Here is the input.
Amino acid sequence: MLQCIFFLSDTGEVMLEKQMAGHRVDRSICAWFWDYVLSHGGDPSMILPVIASPTHYLFQLFRDGIIFLACTQVEMPPLMGIEFLCRVADVLTDYLGGLNEDVIKDNFVIVYEILDEMMDNGIPLTTELNILREMITPPNIVSKMLSIVTGKNSNVSTKLPDATASCIPWRKTNSKHSSNEVYVNLVEEMDAIFNRDGILVKCEIYGEVQVNSHLPGLPDLTLSFSNPSILYDIRFHPCVRFRPWESDQILSFVPPDGEFRLMSYRVKKLKNPPIYVKPQLTSDAGNCRVNVLVGIRNDPGKAIDSITVQFQLPLCVASANLTPNHGTVNILADKTCCWSIGQVPKDKSPSLSGNLVLDVGLDKLHVFPVFRVGFRIMGVAFSGLQIYKLDVKNTPSEPYKGFRALTRSGEYEYIIMIYFRIFRSECYAAYNTPKEVNFNPFIMCFYGV
Here is the structure.
């Protein structure tokens, strides 16, 4: 049972507090949590999702600069707390059109109303987005004008949603649509790590099966894949019947109205990622020569577009002069270099070359940037997952079925790092370490990436 939920900014400021149960949780727990974040590097995205404080168990989720922090003092399944925070973040993103500090503060009334409906006395209650939309009107210009004219500040409906009378709580009993159609999208994100020599260290895909349903009545759908054995770490929407998947690896479900995530999955140990990056940095006499080459490593058969390469210039770099032979490059105020390529041309390989001027007194560059690659491939699920068949029953006529696939980059990095842990310390650190630097193996324990 969750006792309280806090919304914190990326600087540790408490923006919103919602007490879920009779026992009040003091805000001092947020100060303890932020001290914990600062002692572990100051990056909330790198903190464990479940933390044991001296007085509470904490569940935290970092999403778009907002920290969702939930507290409890009783035993409960950790995944339930994490999943609830993920559901809160997804619902608020859909309601408010995005998440940031200003949006939360401008719509705090609706945020409180949503939290009231999503949890009752610390127990998750209504978490389905379609049902919440019937109960609480999403903010828009019309609703804001009506609230000003009528003086009514509440967005909560005076009647219960139709789904409360249904045996299927995520769907209306008398759903009607002018269009009779259903769309299934495979959306995948590829995470990959390459070492200094360009050798693939790890590559896996996180994917989602997203469905957009506009079917009348109470349809019953069956979705099957050609190769479901490649899937790991599968999570289902509550509408999925588990027994058909367990026995035959078939998804059988009655869909909610509109868009929803039917399932998520992972595909591990991929061998041939689509793009390669060859960075070369040579430094001497206070200058560092940079040459970065980008090309297609494994042609997926579809165009790879929206290719970007981003890296952080080291703090010891005083100035930079970088020129691409294709695309555009921008160096931001925080020394982030963004190279926008678009598509790789057929007649040449995109390259970025130039010179970095080091600070006075520094002869060579001793730290190396991490190169983060972005891309998008329309029409391809790079994991190899394929939809075999989609059957729709209990509809007055045969619906239109649409299928689409998309692969995009996640954490796709060319990284030169050595992780170490100093004995008798709980803090982990990562250093971009050149090859010529040596450490005493009796003092530190190394884990090379």
Q: What stands out?
A: Helices lie at 28-39, 78-96, 101-106, 108-118, 129-135, 141-150, 242-248.
